[in-house]
UniProtKB/TrEMBL annotation:
Signal peptide (from-to): 1-21
Gene Ontology BP annotations: cell wall organization; polysaccharide catabolic process
Keywords from the named record: Carbohydrate metabolism, Cell wall biogenesis/degradation, Disulfide bond, Glycoprotein, Glycosidase, Hydrolase, Polysaccharide degradation, Secreted, Signal
GO molecular function, one term: rhamnogalacturonan alpha-L-rhamnopyranosyl-(1->4)-alpha-D-galactopyranosyluronide lyase activity
Reaction catalyzed: Endohydrolysis of alpha-D-GalA-(1->2)-alpha-L-Rha glycosidic bond in the rhamnogalacturonan I backbone with initial inversion of anomeric configuration releasing oligosaccharides with beta-D-GalA at the reducing end
Protein name per Swiss-Prot or TrEMBL: rhamnogalacturonan hydrolase
Predominant subcellular localization, coarse grouping: secreted
Length: 561
């Protein structure tokens, strides 16, 4: 599918706009869902499924998969389904899974509700953009149980996409991409409880493009873990979350060529947290570009002594060639948690760190700090030298706002969290994920003009939405205080080709004097193992609230991921 997009874009002369240098090649399925459906369609209703919200979908789904796994489309029509035995779908090729219904968790096993492994040329989507998994995590969370199942996991899947799909209230993590290759994830809404351990998207994979995703929770928004290479993450709306991050990193970290671009973060623990504590290996060639934040505890937070994980053996993960560029907005309380914190390992000082075009200011009080330790490069408190010897933390405090810090807000920022003890409503997938950026692809529900429920209809229309790509490069996004969103200016080239619906219509207004509600829970009231928000140089770490990350790497549970 992306192949099609790319050739179409080249035809329009728009290809460079992809700026997809961070990817190593094409991503997405090799065969369209319509072709797969024409080959064979396996409707779960023909395999014993009943959309009555009580009959177990597990066996019918497995049977439908068995019949269509060698080429075909497994179809879950609209309706409410119950999943009480988890689906482990292994070894498919040239297949798609179209879930237009809503799958409710009724089982109590841990593990993964839907686990897709050893598949190639795969697509998971909802043609109505309303298909969802409702994990009903609150039922477990109300009993203080955080070890229920994850919703969706892909393991060793190649040439694939997951899109137009909604994940709600996972008992544990929502979506993990484990050792996958050539994938595209887009047009998703993920909404979990307001607690640590309920990650949005975790990816440790190669050549993956994640874009146009909204996450609400209180842990990872979209996070890169090790090993990873060639990951491009764009237009992410962390709408009350933990925030995006990289890590936690331990031994033999191997992460390179990562770009985060157009990341909007509201009421989160941080805008970007690169976290480790001891360990070894490297993180290199990282670009963190076009970030807007409001109401967050931390902003840029590189913490190589992250106290929410136990220290592991090693001198530290070597960080190098990290560029932080065009960050705007405000943080919750800059005197307590300044917008720049670059704490590198004394045993492995980081280098080639660049911080430029970075202007953030505090929402509370009238000062903020920048802090660096064993960090080399250019900008702010970074030391500019080639010797790369360790140095202890230096903190500078500023008492006036940098010019140009003001940045637009999204119109519909969540004003209160969903807690973790009552049912969480299923959201709709937004059509804007970053101020001024139009999603690369229209929602399937909007692009399929007829017969939305038909996969045949749904896929043929993708190319019509492709032209909106041009709009999604808002390098000029609204640092200005007065213009109501720089959105319209950015979009013209796309609009000239084909008017795309409502660009900028819903991304709200520029706020020059943000007065956001106190971000309770955004790192201010840590629930995690580290507890108190002790502040002193090293005490600044370790309050990523309530992470309690029971991570996973290669299928193993480790305590610090
Ligand atoms: C927590 O919930 C999961 C999933 O229902 C269950 O397997 C596990 O036994 C529960 N743990 C506790 C301590 O109750
Ligand atoms: C890091 O991972 C890449 C694959 O992404 C691999 O080719 C390389 O050998 C790894 N490097 C180390 C030092 O493990
Ligand atoms: C630094 O990383 C960028 C990607 O962010 C890459 O384009 C560039 O080649 C890297 N520089 C070096 C010296 O490796
Ligand atoms: C942000 O989250 C809240 C709660 O989920 C939702 O009402 C609002 O629509 C979201 N914003 C957008 C732009 O989707």
């Amino acid at each position: 599918m992306l192949l099609d997009k790319r050739s179409f874009l080249s035809f329009l002369g728009l290809a460079p706009i992809f700026a997809a240098a961070q990817l190593s090649g094409s991503v997405g399925p090799l065969t369209s869902a319509s072709t797969k459906a024409a080959t064979k369609t396996c409707n779960v209703l023909d395999y014993g499924a009943v959309a009555d919200k009580s009959t177990d979908l597990g066996a019918p789904l497995a049977s439908a998969f068995a019949d269509c796994k060698s080429g075909g489309l497994v179809y879950v029509p609209s309706g409410d389904y119950a999943l009480s035995t988890w689906a482990r779908l292994s070894g498919g090729e040239a297949w798609a899974l179209q879930i237009d219904g809503i799958i409710y968790r009724t089982g109590t096993d841990s593990g993964n509700m839907i686990y897709i492994e050893h598949s190639s040329d795969f697509e998971l989507f909802s043609s109505t953009s309303e298909g969802a998994m409702q994990g009903l995590g609150y039922e477990l969370h109300a009993d203080d149980n955080w070890s229920g199942p994850r919703l969706l996991r892909l393991y060793e899947v190649t040439d694939f996409s997951v899109h137009d799909f909604i994940l709600v209230d996972s008992p544990s993590f929502h979506f993990s991409l484990d050792t996958c290759t050539n994938g595209e994830i887009y047009n998703m809404a993920i909404r979990g409880g307001n607690h640590g351990g309920l990650d949005g998207i975790d990816v440790w994979s190669n050549n993956i493009w994640v874009h146009d995703v909204e996450v609400t929770n209180k842990d990872e928004c979209v996070t890169v873990k090790s090993p990873s290479k060639n990951i491009l993450i764009e237009s992410i709306y962390c709408n009350w979350s933990g925030g995006c991050g990289m890590g936690s990193f331990g031994s033999d970290t191997n992460v390179s060529d990562i770009t985060y671009r157009n990341i909007y973060t509201w009421s989160s623990n941080n805008m970007m947290l690169i976290k480790s504590n001891g360990g070894s290996g490297f993180v290199e060639n990282v670009l963190l570009e076009n970030f807007i934040g409001h109401g967050n505890a931390y902003s840029l937070d590189i913490d190589s002594y992250w106290a929410s994980m136990s220290a592991v053996d090693g001198d530290g993960v070597q960080l190098s060639n990290i560029t932080v560029k065009n960050w705007k907005g405000t943080e919750a309380y800059g005197a307590e948690r300044g917008p720049i914190k670059v704490i590198c390992a004394d045993g492995a000082p980081c280098y080639d760190i660049t911080i430029e075009d970075f202007a953030m200011w505090t929402e509370e009080g009238d000062s903020q700090w920048y802090s660096c330790e064993s960090a080399y490069g250019s900008g702010f408190c970074l030391q500019d030298s080639d010797d790369h010897v360790s140095y202890s933390a230096t903190t500078s405090t500023v008492d006036s706002a940098p010019s140009g810090y003001s940045a637009t807000s999204m119109a519909a920022d969540l004003t209160t969290d969903f807690g973790s003890t009552v049912s969480i409503p299923i959201p709709t997938i937004p059509t804007s994920f970053y101020p001024g950026a139009t999603p690369y692809s229209a929602l399937m529900a909007d692009s399929a003009s007829t017969a939305a429920a038909s996969s045949l209809a749904s896929h043929a229309t993708v190319s019509s939405s492709v032209v909106s790509v041009a709009a999604s490069v808002p390098s000029a996004v609204a640092p200005s205080e007065s213009i109501p969103a720089a959105t319209s200016a950015v979009v013209t080239s796309a609009a000239a080709v084909a008017p795309s619906p409502a660009v900028g219509a819903q991304e709200g207004s520029t706020t020059s004097a943000p007065s956001f509600a106190a971000p309770s829970g955004a790192g201010n009231s840590p629930q995690g193992p580290s507890g108190a928000s002790g502040f002193g140089q090293k005490g600044q770490q370790g309050e990523q609230s309530g992470q309690g990350e029971q991570g996973e790497q290669g299928g193993q549970e480790v305590c610090y991921v």
